[in-house]
């Protein structure tokens, strides 16, 4: 007996993804446009999409590679304001595809994933979640595919420096910068010289009473390729608009 193509109804694939940052948005766009017969929900602990760019707000926070290389091929932006875009501009860019492609309907914000276990008998994942406003109430969802898209930049911790626990001043991690922090007239010590410290130092030293940067080894720094203003910046903007205009491609 020959079975028709509709003899069996395909089972919808249930997908749960954790994280609505740059990788979570990419996966959500691909899943909803390229995968048939799925249901998908993305959970994020923050109140908005953007991941690390929604969380990081220290002075000078910016992209450390050219902005035009830090974007989706399917959502190009030729109008970056500067070569190394600042965090607020990158966050607005990441919000744009979520709005333009109607992806926000698949995302549940302010929800933290607390665990996930594979059920061998039923061949499915059991994912446990907590709503931020009701942390004592645990939610359990089941899915066939479980995606981790939380990145590497949101599990910050303070270094194990002797005496840090008895320090009388305020201890701040750049990845957990307090909103509206007033550092005017303060004596500031910055530990480390990687991207975040290199970016925040210029913004802090203008208003600090004193500032010191303590590092284990030197790092190589060069001036910005393009200044925020001036002839080079104007040419930077107009050349990109010219070469990305469909009339010139």
UniProtKB/TrEMBL annotation:
This is FAD-binding monooxygenase aflW. The gene is aflW. Belongs to the FAD-binding monooxygenase family. It comes from the Eukaryota. Keywords: FAD, Flavoprotein, Monooxygenase, Oxidoreductase. InterPro entries: FAD-bind_Monooxygenase_sf, FAD/NAD-bd_sf, Flavin_mOase-like. GO terms for molecular function: flavin adenine dinucleotide binding; N,N-dimethylaniline monooxygenase activity; NADP binding. Pfam families: FMO-like. Transmembrane segments: none annotated.
